[in-house]
Amino acid sequence: MAIKVIIMDVDGTLTNSKKVVTPKTKEALLKAEEKGAILILASGRPTSGLMDLARELKMDQYQGLLVAYNGSKVIDCKTNETLFNQALSVEEGKAVLEHMKKFERVRPMIDKGEYMYVNNVYDNWITWKGEPFDVIQYESRGGKFKLCEVDDLAAFVDFPLNKILTTSDPEYLQAHYQEMMEPFKDTLSCMFTGDFYFEFTAQGIDKAKALDTVLSPMGYRREEMIAFGDGHNDASMVNYAGIGVAMANAVDDLKGIADEVTLSHDEDGIAASLYKHMPEIV
Q: What's the whole-model pTM score?
């Protein structure tokens, strides 16, 4: 069956180690759009962190979709219409942020409008792969946010949140994530989205739910979809699509459930797989 929907995680999947889309992958995706396929970026990133990539891939011209915040919000790139939005309630957000105060090395991050809010704009370094890493700058710049400091995030929040992102040294998160999620394990979605990221979204939220909620009414069938990912939070969409593809750089758990494994994000893995399944674009 012809591929009509191409779904891609961004970091570690669509973009390479330098955080750019390589010319070969871009060419393959633009050809796929010209042949009638739609592109969907499905990422943990906020909407603002996906817009530049969407424009680069001409998704605003071909009516592509953005699945942001790991599935809690879906935007039509052509009309800028919100097609799906399921955020944490104010009460849920406050409860999570209050609980995070118990973990001195965990740094919560939330966003609203053009701002990302943190407790301390100067407490922004973690150790990642043995090196110091400015994670607050990385996240705020990636999401195109201005940075704002708030002493008490739990008291500050009086608006729904699409997600609460927390960060720390990977070793610290591994040692404490179960305690971090314990009060919410039956009421919220709690997951790793990277070895230094652990996040909270509304119950039942994942990329597959967002995709099914939007694509089914449009008439698209799962057999017409191909999905690419590299992380644990990509498992639902890789399972959902007719063809689920793990990048060579993906976590082992994702490779274990994928229909196939392609080349890495530094080796144009998406392009290689598309040329295999969409000979009309070669």
A: 0.95
